[in-house]
């Protein structure tokens, strides 16, 4: 069956980017190759048919797939049953990956800007011309900045090749200013759990008996095998699911108990659960005695603060008796009970303390590192790829290091950007390299992000699509899609750990390249000019070079890593094989290369149970409990797979400073952060009369902004609507599909309305991933609204993460 693209019919040949000087074919090519770009799901008996293993890149889960290739055309994507992580599943997004390959708007050739930033006017150039342009600009800037490599910032979206790009910018170029997706995503959740229980962990939803899912819309936002596990068990095998959310979501539909909570009050809810459990001694006292540090301090703090269910009822809107019931049921099912960690953005100013409180509450029942609780699993080893990193004397420290208590290597997107816009940086940020990220639409306060790019002398974007960020660039370098490249081999940790490989399915189309080749070509062009800059300003290097002959200087250039291209000389295929064979034999490599997946005992343990059910590891070989137990005798005696309640009470050594669950983090006090979760009423943002609190979220058919132009997925959801409580809508005369204006302190958008009783009063919501203004995105252009155009640019105080659910807005019918 031929995939038929009906929506707007590609605007009857509208040019995707306004391209000047005989370059109208850049984004719309009427050649025979482009006429095939709609893809097909047609299958045949043609002998030239291949099934090639790959890993999906339509969301962060990276499910395994087989690409059906007929006559060098990908006609179908099918789930790969051999990967424990994806369990023979490929969701709507995964199936739509074929359209990412054949999207007519995809970037096809290197481009250099000839118009104003953001107007989409570019000329087609050769790769060498693009590299030369970047080299000349960088050399001039670094000369003016006396070889401060940190005057160039860089960012990257999540993906298998993110590390390759980061290696180039950090280890080889030498910049300290990396801002990745963590601070607009999971930073507070991951760090809150890691500092409390040693690691973030994974929720073993398949074996849990009781799950509290707060603010996580798993049934709708990300359809993966572990999502299916919880709902299959809820309906069929007895797991109880409690959903806590301001919206009655598709996840809430499946819940045994839905609790409508006021946005921003989750910490009060968790502290009330904790109070009830401690006050009535419902927690696992043996586990706490053996595995908690400073529990007495936490107990005294919670009780003396009187975080009672009655207190929480007034704040959260959840009746006290329901809070008490959840607390009792949770501990009755512990340790196979989980307060689900969450896997999205920072909600409020107290988000870090919320995640700490969640982790401690789950741990009170012993549900850490046990079957049916939060598990850590194991990671299979891989070899390393050596990178010869040069030592530079002049790069400065990252600019926003003092903007929050703990600014790590991933930075704080908002703080970093705002310092540039507000001209508060300790030294100039002159340029930026962007790889597979769209900060214009993914970082709160779109206006400021555009202002940041306007201030820069050089912006380089590596991407597959002409996104809102790409059209702010001076140079656009087109990466091939994930189906056209082999990416770094990856080890996936878990209860059933495995190694998986994304193989190249077809050769790159047009003039696109994988990022490792893009970087290699750019590095060759940059190496000698940048070495000359370092020779001019780097006193340490000058001392080393003094008295050396030309031949000796050339040798130092190679030996000391100043050849920026040396880490990328080999193909990704070569590097992958090298890294794998460093730990495994040739037979194992053949399995990985053929099946796309490898794990020990795979040939003997993999078994098909029924049409859509497979066994990967035998039960005795799974890694439910991996934390070292304090006494070796205990490790020998206890069956960690069968007896989770028994193993929960045994002393173990967690990956924390005290080797225990950390209730009290004394080191935080030195940075002005409270050592225990505390509710501060003044931090809760009240909603003024006639205003609303705006919240946002994900949808299973959309992966943030990267799927915004995918016509297959837009057929399922062509635009986003704003949810508003029916009573609130009636007061304002707003009916279904009315166009409304939503205004915050940082921006204004227009969107269609969806009045519903499935959202609490004084709160509005719409899905992230819409609202592109890029003229190059034919199907995404002005389609719905972008949330970050109205989300205020506030950060939480611990890591500087973006606060996503605290923006106050007004709404009116247009």
From TrEMBL:
The 4Fe-4S Mo/W bis-MGD-type domain, residue ranges: 49-105
UniProt keyword annotations, A-Z: 4Fe-4S, Iron, Iron-sulfur, Metal-binding, Molybdenum, Oxidoreductase, Signal
Cofactor: Mo-bis(molybdopterin guanine dinucleotide)
InterPro entries named in the record: Asp_de-COase-like_dom_sf, MoPterin_dinucl-bd_dom, Mopterin_OxRdtase, Mopterin_OxRdtase_4Fe-4S_dom, Mopterin_OxRdtase_prok_CS, Prok_Mopterin_Oxidored
Parts forming coiled coils: none
PANTHER family hit by this protein: TETRATHIONATE REDUCTASE SUBUNIT A (PTHR43742:SF9), TRIMETHYLAMINE-N-OXIDE REDUCTASE (PTHR43742)
Family assignment from sequence similarity: Belongs to the prokaryotic molybdopterin-containing oxidoreductase family.
Name this protein carries in UniProt: Thiosulfate reductase
Organism of this sequence: Malaciobacter canalis
Taxonomic lineage from the root: Bacteria, Pseudomonadati, Campylobacterota, Epsilonproteobacteria, Campylobacterales
């Amino acid at each position: 069956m031929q995939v038929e693209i009906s929506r707007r019919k590609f605007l009857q040949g509208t040019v995707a980017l306004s391209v000047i000087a005989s370059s109208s074919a850049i984004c719309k090519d009427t050649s025979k190759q482009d006429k095939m770009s709609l893809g097909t799901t047609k299958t045949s008996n043609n002998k030239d048919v291949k099934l090639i293993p790959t890993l999906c890149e339509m969301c962060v889960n990276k499910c395994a797939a087989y690409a059906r290739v007929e006559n060098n055309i990908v006609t179908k994507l099918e789930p790969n049953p051999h990967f424990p992580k994806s369990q023979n599943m490929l969701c709507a997004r995964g199936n739509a990956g074929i359209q990412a390959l054949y999207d007519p708007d995809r970037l096809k050739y290197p481009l250099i800007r000839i118009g104003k930033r953001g107007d989409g006017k570019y000329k087609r150039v050769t790769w060498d011309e693009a590299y030369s342009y970047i080299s000349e600009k960088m050399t001039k800037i670094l000369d003016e900045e006396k070889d401060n490599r940190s005057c160039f910032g860089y960012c990257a979206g999540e993906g298998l090749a993110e590390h390759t790009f980061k290696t180039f910018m950090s280890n080889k170029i030498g910049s300290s200013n990396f801002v990745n997706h963590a601070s607009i995503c999971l930073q507070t959740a991951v760090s809150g759990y890691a500092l409390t229980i040693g690691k973030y962990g994974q929720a073993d939803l398949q074996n849990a008996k009781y799950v509290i899912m707060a603010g996580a819309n798993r049934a709708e936002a990300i359809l993966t095998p572990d999502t299916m596990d919880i709902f299959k068990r809820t309906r069929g095998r007895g797991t109880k699911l409690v959903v806590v959310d301001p919206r009655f979501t598709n996840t809430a539909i499946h819940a045994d108990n839905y609790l409508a909570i006021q946005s921003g009050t989750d910490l009060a809810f968790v502290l009330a659960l904790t109070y009830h459990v401690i006050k009535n001694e419902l927690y696992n006292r043996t586990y706490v005695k053996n595995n908690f540090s400073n529990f007495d301090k936490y107990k005294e703090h919670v009780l003396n603060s009187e975080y009672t269910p009655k207190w929480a009822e007034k704040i959260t809107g959840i009746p006290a008796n329901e809070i008490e019931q959840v607390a009792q049921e949770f501990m009755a099912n512990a340790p196979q009970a989980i307060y689900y960690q969450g896997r999205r953005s920072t909600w409020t100013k107290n988000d870090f303390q919320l995640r700490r409180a969640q982790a401690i509450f789950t741990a009170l029942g012993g549900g850490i590192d046990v079957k049916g609780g939060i598990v850590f699993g194991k990671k299979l080893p891989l070899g390393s790829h050596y990178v010869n990193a040069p030592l530079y004397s002049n790069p400065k420290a990252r600019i926003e290091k003092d903007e929050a208590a703990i600014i790590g290597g991933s930075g704080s997107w908002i703080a970093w950007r705002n310092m540039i816009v507000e001209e508060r940086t300790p030294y100039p940020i002159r340029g930026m390299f962007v790889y597979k990220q769209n900060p214009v639409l993914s970082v709160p306060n779109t206006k400021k992000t555009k202002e940041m790019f306007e201030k820069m002398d050089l912006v380089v974007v590596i991407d597959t699509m002409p996104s809102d960020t790409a059209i702010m660039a001076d140079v656009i370098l087109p990466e091939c899609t994930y189906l056209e490249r082999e990416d770094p081999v990856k080890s996936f940790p878990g209860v059933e750990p495995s190694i998986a490989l994304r193989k190249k399915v077809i050769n790159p189309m047009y003039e696109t390249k994988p990022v490792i080749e893009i970087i290699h070509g750019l590095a060759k062009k940059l190496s000698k000019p940048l070495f000359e800059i370092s020779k001019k300003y780097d006193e340490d290097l000058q001392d080393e070079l003094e008295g050396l002959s030309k031949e000796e200087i050339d040798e130092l250039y190679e030996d000391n890593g100043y050849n920026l291209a040396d880490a990328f000389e080999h193909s990704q295929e070569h590097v992958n094989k090298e890294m794998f064979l460093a730990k495994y034999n040739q037979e194992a490599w053949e399995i990985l290369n053929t099946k796309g997946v490898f794990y020990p005992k795979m040939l003997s343990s993999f078994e098909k149970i029924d049409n859509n059910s497979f066994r990967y590891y035998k039960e005795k070989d799974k890694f439910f409990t991996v934390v070292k137990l304090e006494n070796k005798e205990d490790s020998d005696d206890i069956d960690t797979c069968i007896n989770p309640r028994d193993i929960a009470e045994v002393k173990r050594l967690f990956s924390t400073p005290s080797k225990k669950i950390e209730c009290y983090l004394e080191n935080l006090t030195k940075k002005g952060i409270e050592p225990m979760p505390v509710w501060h009423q003044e931090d809760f943002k009240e909603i003024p009369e006639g205003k609303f609190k705006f919240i946002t979220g994900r949808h299973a058919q959309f992966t943030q902004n990267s799927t915004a132009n995918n016509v297959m997925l837009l057929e399922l959801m062509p635009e986003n609507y704003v949810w508003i409580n029916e009573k609130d809508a009636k007061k304002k005369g707003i009916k279904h599909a009315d166009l409304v204006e939503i205004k915050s302190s940082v921006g204004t958008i227009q969107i269609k309305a969806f009045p519903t009783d499935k959202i609490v009063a004084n709160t509005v919501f719409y899905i992230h991933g819409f609202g592109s203004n890029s003229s190059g995105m034919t199907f995404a252009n002005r389609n719905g609204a972008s949330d970050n155009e109205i989300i205020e640019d506030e950060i939480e105080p611990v890591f500087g993460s973006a606060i996503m659910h605290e923006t106050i807005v007004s709404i009116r019918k247009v």
